[in-house]
Amino acid sequence: MSIRRQRAIREVGEPSIRGCLYNVLYTVIFCAVGIGAAILLMRDVTTSEWLSILPTFLVANLVEYGIHRWPMHRNIGPMAFMLKLHMVHHNYFDENEFSVATFEDYEMVVFPPFVLNMLSLAVTLPLAGIAYLVAGMNVAMIFIATVMGYYLLMQLLHVFAHIPKGHLVHRIPGVDYIRNHHCIHHDHSEMANANFNFIIPISDWLFGTSRTEGRNRSALAHADPKLERDVLS
Ligand SMILES: [Zn+2]
Ligand SMILES: [Zn+2]
């Protein structure tokens, strides 16, 4: 076990089946209830209201990028706890041990419940309130459902990224690209500079932080086989 992984365990304790199930079930149930409630509150949704999914997806992509790039990778005063918590994830899964090995390891991948609580209360609800005032109930509910769906998809793709290379789920179109993208982000020499999106890396492309090659040879052992061949040969 790497020194970094041992340090991550020292900081938050060994992951457990109970902790893993708690994180996973809380995330799935919270998001499913949020999406279901929002859909139930929609009435006679028009085509233009459905189209609000697109800007909402882009805002979610920017927020995901911004939170990951800055508070989760920079020491920003009152938000320093986010950096500390995220470094546990990066130390647990570094360029040498990028994949989950046991069921308990998923506890170190799926974000803990308080992240979802904070995101819902401090970001999603206030923005949904603004959407309600500007465009009405349907758009506000579409906003909530899209954000919850985005969060759930983000967690799912993050899990897929940390599953050992070559797994069946990586045959789903686009999943291996995201796995490779995230693997490079886990290289300690790249993590503060590149590949901050978890889903489609739109904001990474926009801000010029998308990389398809890592600098570290160990990280490339988990990355795309073609890159591995090119760099290691
Ligand atoms: Zn990760
Ligand atoms: Zn990170």
Topology:
Elements: H1 3-12, H2 17-40, H3 47-50, H4 53-69, H5 80-92, H6 113-135, H7 137-162, H8 175-185, H9 202-206, H10 217-220, H11 225-232
Helix pairs in contact: 1-5, 2-7, 4-7, 6-7, 7-8
The protein binds zinc ion (ZN) (2 copies).
**Using DSSP, what is the number of strands?**
0
Tertiary shape: globular
Low-confidence parts: 217-233
Individual helix count = 11
Fraction of residues in H or I helices:
55-70%
- How many angstroms separate the termini? 27 Å
Summarize the main sheet: none
Supply Rg.
18 Å
Assembly state (oligomeric): single chain
Mean pLDDT score = 90
Beta-strand residue fraction: under 5%
What is the helix/strand order?
HHHHHHHHHHH
Structural class: mainly alpha
The distinct bound ligands, ions and cofactors come out as: zinc ion
Compact description:
With 233 residues, the chain is an all-alpha fold. The protein has 11 helices and no strands.
Task: Record keyword descriptors for this entry.
233 residues; mainly alpha; 2 domains; 11 helices; 62% helix; 0% strand; globular; disordered C terminus; binds zinc ion
What does this molecule look like?
The protein has 233 residues and is mainly alpha-helical. It folds into 2 domains: 1-88 and 101-162, no CATH class; 163-233, no CATH class. The protein is built from 11 helices and no strands. It has helices at 3-12, 17-40, 47-50, 53-69, 80-92, 113-135, 137-162, 175-185, 202-206, 217-220, 225-232. The longest helix has 26 residues, at 137-162. The chain is globular and about 55 Å long. The structure holds zinc ion (2 copies). One zinc ion binds at residues 68, 72-73, 86, 90, 185, 191. Residues 68, 72-73, 86, 90, 185, 191 line the site of one zinc ion.
